[in-house]
Write a structure and sequence with these properties.
Layout lengths: L18 H10 L22 E8 L5 H17 L3 E8 L4 H10 L7 E5 L3 H6 L7 H5 L9 H5 L2 E2 L2 E2 L2 E6 L1 E6 H6 L8 H14 L13 H10 L5 E4 L2 E4 L4 H11 L9 H4 L4 H9 L5 E5 L3 H5 L7 E4 L15 E7 L6 H11 L2 H11 L6 H10 L4 H10 L8 H7 L2 H10 L5 H19 L1
Parallel strand pairs: 1-2, 1-3
Antiparallel strand pairs: 3-12, 4-5, 6-12, 7-10, 7-11, 8-9
Helix pairs in contact: 1-2, 2-14, 2-15, 9-10, 18-20, 19-20
């Protein structure tokens, strides 16, 4: 996520109460509002300044806290905008793709504002669903404090298609009791990380030293990036896979070498994804795991509670931090909205600093604004390693619709699993993955 400029040629590399009243208002989902005096108009659906705005947000496992925060934000919006009303629908994340695509094809049933995953940006832009809000974003004072990684997630070919809502990154969770008993220190390089994992499993064979997963794409990518590799390169408007480069293969080899009887046996670990690895750590089966800021609550609810700490995942060189994938969600305006100006203002309210701060307190979602995030870390020290990781330079996937096909096709997990099972060498598996990725790039145009 960079400023609104065109993305650099080498992708996926780091760049350097009324509580009751609020609840009632949200339950009614009818909030009055007045048109703002600034914001560009001219959307495909028009720019009506009164009437109903429809909002789709993702439903969380425990949605109550999110509803309270959103209700507070909409109450503030209602005080400043009269003559309009907003209706919020919470949709399941699992069915978002079908529902949102259907909305793109039927503007009459489409919402005006949506929450969407940041890896979905390019595909939704290709499908013609999201409104270009470049000028609106640039004119928004709060946007100046958006971190570069988050900004890249709403940027496609130099244009902005939404506002970042929260960001999620991963770091290294480790068992302080195990490290103390074995006289270990938190690893400072990826080589030391591997040695430490082997030592722990040797001394404590009932534990994975570092639990890893063959289906844990976003836990593996920091190894690729830390070794100078990239997922893809962009020349002009075309993308070419780079997972078969020598630098990328060094990272792939570093990650896959963590699988084996010396640490995390393939028979148990090859099929694991991110949730499974975090669960292994939380349940006391692993001494280390790569988990997100969003994993904190799960770990706190597990057997590791009170016996763990978090540090940034080390890079290849001592003192460096491995680039983490900058995940998260955004808020966008649909191109078909007949209330463009109001929709933009609502986007700003839902993704603004006050709402992001409230979402962090309620849900633990990491803010995308650097100043809000620093304050969050001051209030909740567990956030500090994740803030340091972001400050060191997070990374992102290729901003192209092809990534959806690559991800859904399990191209990278298949590559890792072929290597850890011994079916293919690193060279052969990386070459095969690159061919699949290039096919997806060509199909995306």
């Amino acid at each position: 996520m960079t400023p609104s400029g065109r993305l650099p040629g080498r992708l996926s590399r780091p760049l350097s109460g009324a509580a009751a009243l609020v609840a009632a208002a949200l339950a009614a989902t009818a909030l009055t509002a007045c048109a703002p005096s600034t914001s560009s108009a001219g959307a495909a659906g028009g720019d009506e300044r009164t009437g109903r705005l429809r909002v789709w947000l993702f439903r969380e496992v425990d949605n109550g806290p999110k509803e309270a925060v959103v209700g507070k934000a909409l109450a503030a919006f209602a005080r400043e905008h009269r003559g309009a009303r907003a209706e919020v629908t919470y949709i399941p994340v699992e069915t978002r793709a079908q529902r949102i695509k259907a909305a793109f094809n039927d503007p009459r049933s489409a919402p005006d504002v949506i929450e969407y995953g940041n890896t979905d940006t390019a595909g939704y832009v290709r499908d013609g669903g999201l409104a270009d809000v470049t000028a609106d974003f640039a004119a928004w004072p709060e946007a100046r404090d958006t971190d570069p990684a988050a900004r890249r997630s709403v940027t496609v070919d130099g244009k902005v298609y939404g506002a970042p809502l929260f960001v999620g990154v991963r770091a290294l969770y480790y068992r302080t009791d195990v490290f103390r008993e074995l006289g270990l220190r938190p690893p400072r390089t990826q080589d030391e990380l591997a040695r430490t994992a082997r030592r722990i499993h040797q001394e404590r064979p009932e534990l994975y030293g570092l639990v890893v997963g063959g289906s844990y794409t976003y836990g593996a990518l920091p190894f690729l990036w830390a070794n100078g590799g990239a997922l893809a390169e962009k020349k002009g408007r075309k993308y070419t896979a780079a997972v078969d480069s020598e630098a990328a293969k060094r990272g792939i080899a570093a990650y896959t070498a963590l699988f084996g009887e010396h640490n995390c046996p393939p028979a148990k670990c090859a099929q694991m994804g991110g949730n499974a690895t975090v669960e292994a750590f939380a349940s006391g089966k692993a001494a280390m795991a790569i988990g997100g800021d969003f994993s904190h609550r799960a770990v706190e609810n597990g057997k590791a509670k009170g016996r763990y700490a978090v540090v940034p995942l080390p890079g290849a060189e001592e003192g460096s931090i491995a680039p983490a994938f900058a995940g998260g969600n955004n808020i966008g305006v649909l191109k078909s909205s007949s209330h463009r100006t109001l929709a933009v203002e609502l986007m700003r309210t839902l993704a603004g600093k006050r709402t992001q701060s409230d979402l962090f307190d309620a849900m633990g979602f990491l803010p995308t604004y650097t100043d809000v995030r620093r304050e969050a870390a001051r209030r909740q020290p567990y956030v500090e390693p994740f803030v340091r990781t972001l400050a060191a330079g997070a990374a992102f996937v290729p901003v192209t619709p092809a990534w959806g096909a690559i991800d859904a096709g399990q191209v990278l997990p298949s590559m890792f699993q072929e290597i850890v099972s011994g079916r293919r060498s690193v060279d052969a598996a990386a070459s095969a993955a690159a061919k699949k990725m290039n096919s997806a790039f060509r199909a995306a145009g």
